[in-house]
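Lab meeting, item 3. Inverse folding demo.
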């Protein structure tokens, strides 16, 4: 059975290794997870700190979330705008 960990747990575990200077082995034992799992999280965390994106990896920074939210909002507004333009066209035809 595979355990699921939330994003915050993964990031906090990786921070213990990277920022606090603890070893992967000791941190993994302390948290009760496999060393390789923690090693993968640390690798992703380091990549994220260097500026690469974590699309689909489960990690997200507030800026990335805000950008995604804004992009979704723009798409929604563009769709609403297109619908309103079509409606205006229909009403304009009915006025003649």
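The presenter then showed the designed sequence:
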């Amino acid at each position: 059975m595979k355990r699921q960990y939330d994003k915050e747990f993964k990031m906090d575990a990786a921070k213990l290794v990277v920022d606090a200077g603890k070893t992967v082995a000791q941190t993994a034992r302390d948290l009760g997870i496999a060393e390789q799992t923690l090693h993968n999280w640390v690798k992703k965390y380091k990549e994220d700190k260097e500026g690469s994106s974590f699309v689909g990896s489960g990690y997200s920074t507030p800026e990335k979330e805000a950008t995604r939210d804004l992009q979704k909002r723009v798409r929604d507004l563009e769709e609403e705008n297109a619908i309103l333009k079509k409606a205006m066209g229909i009403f304009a035809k009915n006025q003649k």
